[in-house]
Structure formats: structure tokens, C-alpha cells
Amino acid sequence: MGRSPCCEKAHTNKGAWTKEEDQRLVAYIKAHGEGCWRSLPKAAGLLRCGKSCRLRWINYLRPDLKRGNFTQEEDELIIKFHQILGNKWSLIAARLPGRTDNEIKNYWNTHIKRKLIARGIDPRTHQPASAAAAVAPAAAAAPSSHLHHGDDKAVVVRSSCGSRDSSDYDSTSGSVPHQLGLGGGIDLNLSLSPPTSQPLSPAAAN
DNA sequence: AACGTTACCAACCGCAGAGCA
DNA sequence: TTGCTCTGCGGTTGGTAACGT
User: Fold this and answer.
1) Closest protein residue to C9 using CA and C1' atoms?
2) Start-end ranges of CATH 1.10.10.60 in chain A?
3) Which nucleotide is nearest to A51 (CA to C1')?
4) Which residues lie closer than 8 Å to A103 by C-beta, 6 or more apart?
5) Which of A 89-108 have CB under 7 A of nucleic chain B?
6) Which of A109, A135, A139, A205 has a CA that sits 20 to 30 A from residue A167's CA?
7) Rounded to whole angstroms, how far apart are CA atoms A201 and A114?
8) For the domain A72-205, what is the CATH code?
9) What CATH code would you report for A9-61?
10) A128 beta partners
11) Per the confidence metrics, is the pTM higher than 0.70?
């Protein structure tokens, strides 16, 4: 649509961040706080676009990040939240302190999906695979066209979320997927409240 | 030891929505 | 009200480490 690029690509670095860039970014944000990503790179003396800076900070440099293996409990929480929220990684991340949406998304795609499939559960619908196939034959029949080079080689499933619109799976129902017997004694507290609300006890998260 | 395959993570891209003039 | 800018989100890709043959 003729949208102008988010940054002057000719003058920005791409790819992996260097230590020095990290240091500059952290130092700048410590001094000035987050925000105004557009102008941050210039102000911080970075040859990066604002988006890249934001992503680096959020996914890697933020001091409150947990960084480490997901616990069994986190696993189960992610599954439950995904069951309710779908691919709303930011919402899921907001309920898992110290985890980022990107991290959760990656973890979902590389671990949890596989795990669910192994259990005979369709990771999109969270229904038993056979039932899911009946519910979404199109998705099931979709050619595994976009199998990514590494992930999910034999797993298919990438299909459904072609676009942003369809990513809220179950969009046909017009609402958040199912009432699931969530039980498990976990108060999911899924009302859309600011992420500052205590999602789960920190003790449990550790 | 060399090569091919798989798994994983970091980063990029494009779009949508919010905010503002 | 409209159009523009900026931010945030979700999907996708590239690079590489780990593993298997």
C-alpha cells in the first residue's frame, strides 16, 4: 500500500546484535526509560531501526526476564491459556512473569505442539485429533504447504493461521474458543486486565 | 571425520490499531 | 472526520548447534 518503511534501511544494521549495541541500548533505556522507539536508535547512537531495538529490549535485555527452561507448570499454563486465548502470545506472556511473547511462541511451536500431538490432541483446537479433523476438515486437509525448514517437519498444523484475521482461531464462533474444563485448581483470571495484575503466584512461577 | 537432518532461538517483516494533529 | 505516524503483535525466516548416519 505504499507504506513507507519503518526506518531508513540503507543506514541500519540487521541481524545479530553485538555486545556493544546491547550495552548502548541498555544504557540508554536505563537513563531515559522505554518509549519513543522511533527516535531511540538515533538518540542512543545505534544503527538500528526502532522496532529492532524494541524487540531486542523486550525479548532479551529486559532485566526482569527469566531466561531458562520452562517448568512443567509453565508448560501446562501455556497450554491452558492457549486453549482459551489462541495465538494471543502477548496475552499469554502477560500471565507468565519473566517470559516474553516471542519466547512462548517459539516454545509452543517447538515443544508444546509436538507434545500435544503426541498425546493425540490437536494443538489448534485442543480437541482430540480425530475430532479436530472433523471440526476443521479444511485445515486438516490443507496441504502442508508452508512447513518451515526446521519446525514441525512431519507435523503439519502450521496451516490455519495464514493471516492475522484467521489467527484467532475459532473466529467462526466469534468468541474465545471453548469453555474448557479448566479446573486444575488454577485461577486463570482471564479477564482482560492490565498485565500488572498478579497472574500467578511468583512462588509458583519459580 | 564428514555429511545430512532436525531442533531451537533470535530477529525480521508486514499488518492492524491507537493516538494525535 | 480524515489522514498520518508510531507502536505492538503475530507469523515467518535465517543461522547455527545438536544429533544421527
Assistant:
1) A90
2) 9-61, 72-205
3) C7
4) A59, A93
5) 102-103, 105-107
6) A205
7) 28
8) 1.10.10.60
9) 1.10.10.60
10) A121
11) yes
